[in-house]
Amino acid sequence: MKLTGKATRNLIFIPFLLFVIAGLTLAFLPKTEKDHMPEPKGEAVWEYITKTHSYENWDHWPGFDGMYEGQSPHGAFLKLYVNDAAKTALNSNFEGMPDNAIIVKENYNKQKKLVAVTPMYKVKDYNPKAGDWFWAKYGADGTIMSEGKVGSCIDCHAKMKEKDYLFSIAK
Length: 171
Hints:
The chain is α+β, with helices and mostly antiparallel strands. Helices cover 29% and strands 22% of the residues.
């Protein structure tokens, strides 16, 4: 069967048109939190938790609504937030946090002034020896005080290794 010029053009044009439509459809689909998680780096995580997906709009850790009394090294008072991935894990039969879970703790002094923000971010294959957690501590203004595989964080939280390095699970 011999194709005419018009039929040949259609054989080329139709797949091209379908490709363009598929690309545009994917480009305009709503992005989920998982679609654009930050790199495990201090600046990227701060940008994500304060601008891209502000943790202040997240839910509090169940049972820790609002400000509650804390202890060293975090602060006299704390607020604890969880992203959707962490919240889903906490509302199920908890077997550990999934990849992309983020927990943000606001650290306040005795006068209830914010002095630091300390997130934990679960990143697949980031640090298997410490539960794959990325740790950071930021000043209230976002200044990076520590980030990454922070020894003091890992050493303290290692006491709770069987609970995925999370003290709040024990409550």
